[in-house]
Structure formats: C-alpha cells, structure tokens
Amino acid sequence: MSTILLVEDEELNRTLVKAVLSRAGVEAVRTASVVDATSLSAARDRLRAADIDLVLLDMNLPDGNGLNLARELAAGLLPADKRPTVVAVTASVLPQDRAAAIEAGCDDFLDKPYAAADLVATVARHLT
Amino acid sequence: MRIDWSVLVLLAAELTFAVLFLRALGGYLLRRDSLQGNVTLVFLPCTVFFGVDITRRLAGGTLPMWVGIATTTVLLAQPYLTVRLAARLRAVPQILDRLVLMAYIGLAFPLLMTARPLTSGGLTAMTLGFSLSEVVAAALLWGKARTRAGANQARLTIAAAATLTFGVMIVFVALGALHGPQLTAVSRVLALLSGLGYLVAFMPSRWLRRMFSTSAAWHVTERLLRADAQSPAEVWQTYAEIMREQTGAEAVAVLMPRPDGQLAQTAYAGPPLPELTQVDAADITALVRAGRPARLREGTPALVAHYGDHLGDDYVTVLAMPVPPDVDGAVLLFNRHRTLFHDDDLRLLAALGGQAGILAERQAVADAQRRLTTELSASVDALTAANQAKSAFLANMSHELRTPLNAIIGFSDLMRVEEPEGDRRRVPAEWVDHIHTSGRHLLGLINDILDLAKIEAGRLDLSPAPLRVDTAITELLTGLAPLFTTKNLTVHTDLPEVTALADRVRFRQIVENLLSNAIKFTEPGGSVTVAAKKRGEQVYVAVADTGVGISESDQPRVFEEFQQVGDPERQRAGTGLGLALTKRLVEAHDGEITLESEIGVGSVFTISLPADTVLPASHPATRAPATGRS
C-alpha cells in the first residue's frame, strides 16, 4: 500500500482530493493512504516521519513556495531510495511556471482546475 | 665715432619719448579722460628732460643752472607719477604711495636748495632714491600685469619692464657722470630701450596689436571649445568666466535679450550676487553706444540697483555682443579700477561671444535631443512596465479564477460519478456548499475585475448625489450583522448625521469592502469601530479593527492588485482585489483613502469624500430632485 502526502493549505482542496482518491476506480489509488500537511514545515516533518511514495504539492503555501520543497528533495532531503515522486498541483499554468516546476525537480504536474479523472490518472501513473 | 653713435641713440630715445608724450597728450585733450592724463604725466618728465638736453645741444652745450635744476626736479617726479598711474589701475597700499612721494620730496628739496655742482654723494643718493622709486612703480605695474591676460598682460609687462629700464638708465647716467663716457653710452642705449618699451606698451603698431589679439582670441576660442559644457547656460557661464580671466574684471555679466526685448542675465562670473532679474534694455543700449568705461554710479541707476551696491565696483564697461544670426546681447565688465589698453581685446572678446552663442545654440539642440532621448526611453520604460504589469495581472487573474473553479469542477465531477438513485444522486451536502461558496467567490472576483477594468478604461459611471452616510452605514451593518455575530465581534459606531456627495452603490461597495476586511482579519472577540465625521469640505469615514494589523513595510502594497500581505494563511479568503478597487472607487469620488496600522494592534482605514455642501442634510424639504435618494 502506498502513501501519498498531500501538501495543500486550502481545506476545500484537501477535502476534494481525498474525496476523489477514495472514490477512484484504480485500486492502487483508492487504497493508498493519504496524509496531509498545510505548510512546508509540516510537509518536511511528514516526509521524515514516514515513507512517502508520492507528494501532491501545492505552490502557494503559508511558509513559502511549494517548489522550495521540490528543490530540497532533489538536493537530497531524504536518502535516494526514499525519495518520493513529486507532482506539482497548481493554478499557475503559464509556460514559465511549468519550466520553474521542472527545474525545481518536480516529476510531473497537474493543472488546477482538474477533473477528478485527471487527478486519479496522474496519481495512478506514479503509483503503479 | 663712438660718441656720435651714442648721441644718435640718445636722440632716438628722446624722439621716442616726445612721440609718446605728444600722443598721450593728444589723447587726453581729445577725450579728457583722466586716466589718459595720468599717462601723459608719466611721459612728461622724460620728455622735458630730453627736450632740455636737445635744447642744450642746439644752444652749444650750456644752459642756465636753474634750467638744469628745474629739469632734474621734474624728472625726479617720474617714478611717483608712475605710481600714481598704477594706483588708477589697481589697489596701491597708501604707505607705498606716501613712501615714494617722500622720497621725491626728500630728493627734490635739497636739489633746489643746495648749490651746483652736486657732490658725488648727493648724486648717488638722488640716483638711488630715483631708482628705488622706479623699482616700486615697475613692481606695481608688473603686479597688475599678472592679474591680466592676453594683450593686456603683454603690454603691462612691457610697460613695467620699460619703467625698470628707465630706473636702471638713470643709474648709468649717474655712473657715467662719475666714471666716464662708456657708461653714459650704456645709459643712452637703455634710454632708447625704455622708450621703445613704452612705445610697444602704449602705442603698439597695428600688427603687434593684431598679434596680441590673435593670441587672446585663439586662447578664448580654444577654451570655449574645450570646456565641457553640457547646456547653453554652461556655455555662457564658461564664456563669462573666460572673459573675467582675460580682462581681469572683478565681475562679468552676460546679458541676452528676452522675447520682450528686455535684457536678462544669462551668465555671471564674479563675487556672489543676488539674482539679477532684468536690466532695462534702454540703459544698456545707451551704455553700449557710449562704448567706453563709465562710472557705475553715474547715470546708470538700473545697473547700480542690480550690481553696483553689491559689487562696490566703480567702473562698468558695456560691450555689444552680436550673436549670429541677429541677436544683440551685451557683456558687462565691472572693475574697481580703471583699465589701460582695454580697447584692444575687449571688442574682440565680445565678438567671440558670438561664438559662444553658436556653441550655446548647438548645446541647446544637443540638450533637446538628450531630453527627447531620455523622455523616449522613459516612456518606453513606462510602457514596458505597464505591459509587464498587465501580463502579471493576467497571470494572477488566471490563477485566481482557477482556484475557485478547481473546487467547482472537482466537486461537481465527484457528484457525477456518485451512484444515481433514479434521476437523483445522493451526494454529501458539504460538496454542494463548497461549490456554491466557490461560485460566489468566483462571481465576486469577476465583478471586481470588471470594476477595475472599467475604472482603468475611464468608463466608471458615477452618479454622485447627496448621501446620508450615517444611514447608509447603518444599513450595511445590519446586513453584515450575521457575520459579526458568527465571529463574535463587537461593533462600535460613532455616526452623527453626515451627508456626502457620493454614488450610493459605490459608497456601499467601498464601506462593505472595508467592513469585510475588518471582519476577516479580526480574531473572534475583537471589535470593529465605524465612525463618520465632517471636517470642512470633506466627510471622513473610518473603519477600525482590533485585528492582526499590517506591517509598515507592507502598508504601501495593500492597495495594489493581487497584493495580499501578511500571513498567507489568511489570504485565501480574499480576491486580492478588494482594496485596490476600494482605493480607485474612493479616488473616482475625488476622495482619498489612508491606512494606519500596527501589527497585533489593528488597522484603521479612513476614506475622505466630498461633503454635500449645497444644503444641510437636515432640510430635506428644500432639496428638490435628490430628496428621495438619501
């Protein structure tokens, strides 16, 4: 069973993500456990505390830009074998935003707003 | 043979001094210029001395004793007369003047009293006294020469050298009388040299003058061209400074005609003066016509009023300065003392003002070009910045619109995949609430953006009318009461009867924005205070909260679009457009919005709007059309 870390400070979005994932048709996605963090520092704590397979990373967080976490992970925040896949989930969808996300070390991105199926497909792609 | 030769030299010298004297005398008689009188007096003793010598030779070698005594007495006065001349040109310490005078009296008096022939001691004393006085006179002239430039300097230096040579010549005359004819011959050569020196200094031939002037002109032109002047004013300033240096004047003013014909000071070099505003063109024109030094305090009240009392200078020379193609400027030279030899350079230097004028013109064109370039690049910068702001705004807008849309699309998507029960689906109620809230948020965002766009395009239609501020605010507070209750906020009001001139709908929007912010950023249990008052022509509405406050560094940014400041956790609730819009709406009413805030204490937003000053709000019966609106 995989573990997903949802880094998102807006409650509405957390509710939505959890609702979508728990109803997913893909079993790996449906059965994945979701932990959440509402800030970068909380996310770091979660990453150190448990093995995380996938990070769904929002950009505008109270204590900084989500890309900072992506950079830290790329720079070796965790041992190489524990490094999770990072998916940037953001409403900033301009080409330069994407370039910045890739440069920061994100493995994939998902544009807001997303259809439930898009979210499931993205997560499934990285968990299976 | 040698004697004959030296006699010829002496005759030549005598002739030279005679010419100098007659020329100076002629000049004096012609113009009655006292300075010229002084010059004449300097040449008088030598001329008399040599004249008597020639007469003696013609008369066969002897003249009565008294002639010799009188001649020598007159000759002894030469150094003192030279000092007097120098005193007209520069400051001469009185002690020096007196000393030379005493020396003259001290030598002349015994000469008149004692019998001839003179003893060798007497002769020596007389020679020494004369020579020393002559050295003083020469030194004074040379000192003056050093303050000048160009032809003036050359001529004054030569005059000083001639004076010194004359003194040395007298020493040799005395030595010749004591020790023999060879030394007398030397004295005659020196006499000729001195005379020629004076001739060059006081009556330079045309080519010599031209040479002096050419050198001065070259010097001035060179300096003008090399000066690093960036503007026409700087060109004229450089010219004024060069003129001051070249002419040795205490101060130089350059005047150019203004469009109304009056001359205005364009540049000034000299001791600091209060700003000269204008000089009557008529006065200047009169002076320019006179074309020679005038006493500043005589007949030129306008100039005295502007320059004289501050400079304390006695003489002003006014020169016409034609600037191509057809401008007639003027140069004023201020001097504490008279100047010798001014004619040579001055006209030329003034004419060079024309060159300065052309340079200034060129500089003006370059200046305009530079300014244009600066303005152009500034507007390009401004346009670029505006364009970037526009792009940033669009990017922000896209982001802001996507955020609520994410909830709307996401939850409605979830609803679609819930198992249907007939033609219905059972979905969690909170999903519906989420969609609704997000939809409302989206609508608010779009309305704000549209309002901003309207204001940007200048298409915001306001219908300002007398508006009872207190009533409008009370209505708003009633509408918002549930929000205050939910957050457990106390509301204080201080709302006397106040009428503003404002658009009713926009006024409500403004105050509602401020109140929503106050509610949003104040912790439960805090309080919000709304106060209105009229001061002069303005109505002030203040919304104060006991909320989180805004740091001083963030305060200037709160009124910008999409600039939510402070703790990002709290930012989610707003669109980032509210205060930007509020500010613009207030400004569209010719009002202002101000902010006072302290972190942790709270914020006070105060708006000012024009008061309805036509009639007091308490007399609605007299207000015909607007009655129903407030």
What does this protein look like?
The complex is a heterodimer of chains A (128) and B (630). Chain A is α/β, with parallel strands linked by helices and 128 residues long. Chain A has a single domain (3-127), classed as Rossmann fold. Chain A is built from six helices and seven strands, in the order E-H-H-E-H-E-E-E-H-E-H-E-H. Chain A has helices spanning 11-22, 27-31, 40-49, 66-74, 95-104, 116-127; strands at 3-7, 33-37, 54-58, 60-61, 64-65, 85-90, 108-111. The relative contact order of chain A is 0.20. In chain B, helix 1 runs antiparallel to helix 2 (34-58), helix 9 (206-226) runs antiparallel to helix 10 (232-247) and helix 15 packs parallel to helix 16. Chain B is rod-shaped and about 160 Å long. Chain B has 17 helices and 14 strands. Chain B is of the alpha+beta class and 630 residues long. Chain B has helices spanning 2-31, 34-58, 65-76, 78-89, 94-113, 120-146, 150-179, 181-202, 206-226, 232-247, 281-290, 301-311, 342-417, 429-456, 469-486, 504-520, 578-588, and strands at 251-257, 263-269, 294-295, 315-323, 327-335, 420-421, 424-425, 465-468, 490-494, 499-502, 527-535, 538-545, 592-598, 602-610. Chain B has three domains: 2-204, Rhopdopsin 7-helix transmembrane proteins, CATH 1.20.1070; 212-369, GAF domain (Beta-Lactamase, 2-Layer Sandwich); 465-629, 2-Layer Sandwich (Heat Shock Protein 90). A five-stranded antiparallel β-sheet of chain B has the order 2-1-5-4-3. The chains are: A alpha/beta (128), B alpha+beta (630). The interface between A and B is medium-sized, with 25 and 26 residues. Chain B: It holds the Pfam family HATPase_c. Chain B: Its main location: membrane. Chain B: Its EC number is 2.7.13.3. Chain B: Keywords: ATP-binding, Cell membrane, Kinase, Membrane, Nucleotide-binding, Phosphoprotein, Transferase, Transmembrane, Transmembrane helix, Two-component regulatory system.
